[in-house]
Amino acid sequence: MIECAGLHYSYDGTHDALDGVSLTIADGEFVSVLGGNGSGKSTLARHLDALLVPDSGHVTVDGLGTATRRNVYDIRSRVGLVFQNPDDQIVAGIVEDDVAFGPENLGVPTGELRARVTEALAAVGLSGFERRETASLSGGQKQRLALAGVLAMRPQTLVLDEASSMLDPRGRAALMHACHRLHSQGMSIVMITHFMEEAAEAERVVVLSHGRVALDDTPDEVFSQADALASLGLDIPMPYRIGLELREKLPGLTPRVTVDAMLGELQAQAAQRGQAPLGTTTAQRGQTPLDASGAEGSCALRVEDVSFAYERGACPALRDISIEVREGEVLGLLGHTGSGKSTLVQLLAGLEKPTRGRVACKAASRVGVVFQYPERQLFARTVREDVAFGPRNLGITGTELAACVDKAIRGVGLDPEAVGDVSPFALSGGQQRRIAFAGVLAMEPDVLVFDEPVAGLDPRSRREFLRLLRKLHAQGRTIVMTSHNMDDAAELCDRVVVLDHGERLLEGTPAEVFSHADELRRAGLGLPGAQEMASRLIELGWPLRRDALYTPDALASDLATCLGAGAPAGTGTAQVSGGER
Predict the structure, then answer these.
(1) Same domain, 117 and 218
(2) If DSSP codes are grouped into helix, strand and coil, which group holds residue 413?
(3) How many separate domains does the chain show?
(4) What residue numbers bound the domain in which 119 lies?
(5) What's 447's domain CATH number?
(6) C-alpha distances in Å from residue 176, one per residue of 95, 220, 357, 439
(7) Confidence of residue 497 (pLDDT cuts 50, 70, 90)
(8) Residue 566's pLDDT band (cuts 50, 70, 90)
């Protein structure tokens, strides 16, 4: 279906974004593409539907060369591309008009067009949104809309450029289900992702590094090269990590890349060793709840009986929300797409006023907000000018301003001498995100509010950014963050609030909140990866602690004990999620 041969491409004529890429994708194949930010993944995706054409080498789609202009229409009717940022491909003001745009331009008759729009919206979970304004949708809902617009064109190949990065757990699961269903019907799938668990479900994994193909094999073979992946800044799937930990104590065990396969391996190991997990009396260490440092601190922000609607008479985005943000804590706001998280962030930052109720801030406190796409906060000619904008508007000038700017740039792990006079738009995506963050830090806010701070980052950049958040928290900053990543919430947060359709559903420490597995699943969320696996093992009769908050390492240790290969129960030290903090 697709062939790339010796593909070279440069945006500036100097540095190759793609450097000799050669690969083929068979008709009906499911391929996942991995790589760090800047490895060439998105550039490759844009070559697959002729948005870009090679500087040298060639790309063919179903035998059609992408460099031949007369082929472009036929190529784009065969290949549907979903961008990482849905705003880049939403063209209409009303949802059903946007979904209809593509097939209408392919000449689909009016009667069939209506059926395609209905079918595509149902496939992505947006039935009933037909007359909604696209501008009123959340980031995750926009991503689903972009996918619907592509599905309505019924392409032979679907290319997803990190299309799951802004989706909640239920949305990601639905996307994977849709991909498998389309694949079973004969569609070729090319999924670019930073989620290793998604890549593990493909038939084949291609890893890019510096514009070149570094690895290309089955998921089992690629993820067995853990050291090579780590050197590329990538991770391995959580089940495989647990399997590697267990194999040190159980040499006969084979690590598996998916949860289902790893569960099957554990069940087989238990039967082989004569261990019957159901009803055994092995005591489990599990994991202690998070240290709730700052949990009893004074109030930095208070949300009191707040309701909010974007338009008079519209369905409220928030209903009767009351939350305290305590000084010195990390508070996580979790919820499905459209649950009201981003709306609450805007209220905390004073960018919107409640329809009812009030948001109160401690006297003289400043609140800094970093949005879902922090790179969009950049606008100035140089990095220093961009970072200086906020403090200058607060009246800081001269040498004090220069010192403030350089301190903020160093605070996000960059060298002001190296990047200060560079255009922010010449930086990598990860560096741009850091500079946007520096512009907020330069105003020295007491409370930092992050809306999906690590969405779209590769594993290495994500780890670096989370370390930065821990550093700021250790310095006494109060942090509020929204997230769709349950592992991040378990690792970082002292306290978690779960929103569901604009209402508060759960509140407590991560250990307390993630003990409500059924409620979280009903709300479109899930559990941290290791916790999800532990939950499923408990359902199978394994005697793991129901009140524990498991990390992969702690779960591997307890599973080894269950299988008769671990230390005696109670001899180890309970691990604490977020212990790096």
Answers:
(1) yes
(2) coil
(3) 3
(4) 2-231
(5) 3.40.50.300
(6) 22, 19, 40, 37
(7) very high
(8) low
